[in-house]
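A quick aside before the break. I want you to see a complete sequence-to-structure record at least once, exactly as it would be stored in a machine-readable document. Don't worry about memorizing anything.
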Amino acid sequence: MIAPIRTDSAVVENLPRPDALDAHVPTYRVQWTTKQRLLRTVFRPLVWLQGRIYRRFLQLFAPAVAFWIMELPIVFSVVATLVRLRIFDRLQQGPKSAADLAAECGANAGALLRMLRTAAILGVLKRTTDEQFALSPVGRQFLSSSPNPVSSWTELMDLLVVPVLPRMTEAVVRGKSLTETAYGKTCWEVMESIPHATELHDKSCSGWTESVVGQIARAYDFSQVRSVIDVGGGRGAFLSAMLNAAPHLQGRVYDRDTTKLAAQEMFLRQGVTSRASHEAGNFFEEVPAGADLYTIKCVLHDWDDASGLKILRNIRKAIPAHGKLLIIEASVDHDLNPAPSVRAIWDVTQYATTWGKSRTLAEFSAIAEQAGFQLTVVYPTDTIDGLIMECVPVWEDATR
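That is the input. The structure line, written in C-alpha cells, reads:
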C-alpha cells in the first residue's frame, strides 16, 4: 500500500466512475516464457488433483473444518499477542520457560502459558520436554528481523483491522470498504491517528517489495529506455532494482516527502545514488513529465476505480509520445502465481484495509483505456506481485 501526500475524501468520491466493463474488449497478449509455459503444463493436472483432494477432504472432515474456521480469530489473536509481546524475538537466543518470558515482557505467567501452549500445538512454537518453549520454522518467520515481514503486518492488522471486523457485514451491505464504513476515512488517515501504524505498514510493504523487485526488474527489457519515474515508489526499492538491472538508466521516485530519506538510504545501499533521485508530490494532483518510462507498482489495488483512474490520467498527461507505462500488480485471474486461495484472500484484505481491490486483467485493460492508454502486453513473473502490464498512450484520446 502506497499513500500520496494527502487524501481528500470528497475529491476522490466525486471523480467520474469508469464505464461498464461490458463495453470494453481487451486486446492485450500474455507473453509467457518457455519456463512458464512448461510449469503451467506440468502443474495444471497437479492443481486439478489438489482441488479434487481438497474437496474430498472437506466432505470427509466438514465438522472439523467448520470448527477451525470458527476458531481462526482466536488463532490469530494468539499469534498477534505473542508478536506484540515480542515473544518470538525473546526466543531467538534459545528456549525459555513461560515464567521467564512473562518476567521479561511484564505479562501474567499463567495467561501467557496458555498462549504458548496453543502456539506449540499449532506448530508456531516448539515445546521441549523440560517445559520450555523454542522457535519453530514457522515461528522464525515472526521474528522482527525476518526478511518475511509477517510480524509487522500481524501487528498492523491487530491494530487497524481486528477492532472493526464486526462491521464487515455492514460494509458488504453498503458496498463500501470496511475502512470507509468503520472509520469514515482512508486507511492512510487512520494509520496517521494510530501510534506506530504507518511505521508498521511501511516496514511490511518494504519487506515484501524488496524480496521480489529484483526478479521483476530482470523480467523486463529496458534496452530502449533511458529514464524512468516510479510513481508511488516509496522507499525506492523497485527503482533501485530497475537501475541495477539496466546500468544505463536514470530514474526518479515520485512519492510522499516522508519517504525521501528512506529512499536516499536505499539508493546508497544499492549503489545507484548517482542515477537516482526522489521527488515529492501527490499523484492525485499531478505526475512529473520528462521520462521515457513510467512505472506504478502495487498502488492501484489500494484505490477504487475512480481514484485509480485519476492517478492514471495524471500519468497520461505527463507521458511523451514514445513513452510507456508499466503497471506491476497481481490480478485475480492470473493462473501462475500466487495460488487462487492467496489471490482471493488478498482481494478481501484489500477490501478490509484500503479503498481498493484486486482486479482482473480485463479490468486493468478497461481502466487503462479510460485513462488514455492501451494495455498491449502482459509479462507474467514468478513473484507474488504477478504481472508486468505494459501500456502505451493512445494519442487520439481526448484526455491528452
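Two observations worth writing down. The mean pLDDT is 88. Residues 9-36+211-393 form a domain with the Rossmann fold fold (CATH 3.40.50.150). We'll return to this after the break.
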